[in-house]
Amino acid sequence: MSNGILRAVQRFVGGLSVIVAASVLLFFANETMGDPTYALLPMDATEQRREAVRESLGLGGSTVSRLSAYLLLTLQGEFGRSYKLDQPVLDIVAPYFWGTMKLIGLALPVGVAGGIFLGFFGLLAGVRTDKWLYKLLLVLHSLPGFVPAILAIELFAVQLKWVPPSGSQGWSSLVLPASLLAGAEAIKIGILLRSKFAEILDEKFILTAKAKGVGRFRFYLHYVLRPALSLIFSFISIQVGVLLSSAVVVESVFAYPGIGGLAVQALSNRDLPSLQACLVITTLFFLCSRFLLDLIHPWLDPRVKQTAAWERSLW
């Protein structure tokens, strides 16, 4: 097994241990929040009815026995039935997870393309325009996520009526939330590439390329963008998790049926099985995507292998 694969497997296994630890913390957090029957039953429900609901939910017995059963089901990938809806948790979570995947699947590639465009635009526009662009990107980056979301709803959904303001009414409902997530990613990547491109242009191989009279298109694609791909690739591997967390805000503002909104509902309803499923499934998705990116990264950028070999030689 090569060192790159071994490191990817080690990260993946470490991530699985984090899932178990987070599940334990979630269990005890739920314990400290009190009796969930008060969130599921009317306030005037009798104690006998509450006790029957506790037994049906598997809340009887000692804390140790319930924690053991809880962790065993987690390791088996089973989450039981929802406290609130009394349905299998996986049947509830699956369509919400698919909704979030559609949102991220549209936002991430568009955001990366937009970020590369902003990086090159600042590079080619001149020093004066680049400074103003950089200031604008910093201002946009500092805005809270809900501010552009509300403004976009007011302009494009309420005033212009181009897209639905909320809900899930086909692919048109993805336009605004995906565009906002993609815009946030483009701003971050544009800021990163601005400094990376300036660093690359000071390298010696750039002077060699100019002396050889390399064509303009090949110069920017092969000699400027290609060395920056490692930075973009590393950034994407982290941003998958960031997008999952950012989707919570976007889904809440647009009332979009995604797993982030479902997790918020499960938390408010004290629905531990549903909340745990949201946590485990999203974390597994991030771990799997990071694992694949760790495998692909050394293949795309041989310098990663060289850096790893150099680090090992130090020891």
Description:
It is a single chain. The chain has 315 residues and is mostly helical. 78% of the residues lie in helices and 0% in strands. The protein is built from 13 helices and no strands. It has helices at 3-32, 37-40, 47-56, 63-75, 89-124, 127-142, 146-159, 175-200, 204-212, 216-253, 259-268, 272-300, 303-314. Helix 1 (3-32) packs antiparallel against helix 4, helix 5 crosses helix 8 (175-200) and helix 6 (127-142) crosses helix 8. The protein is elongated.
Features:
13 helices, elongated, disordered C terminus, 315 residues, mainly alpha
Structural class: mainly alpha
**What is the overall silhouette?**
elongated
Taking all Cα atoms into account, the compactness measure Rg is: 24 Å
Measured as a percent range, the helix fraction is: over 70%
How would you characterize the largest beta sheet? Answer: none
Number of strands: 0
| Number of helical segments with 4 or more residues | 13
Low-confidence stretches: 306-315
Order of helices and strands: HHHHHHHHHHHHH
Overall pLDDT score = 80
β-sheet strand percentage: under 5%
How far is the first residue's CA from the last residue's CA?
A: 20 Å
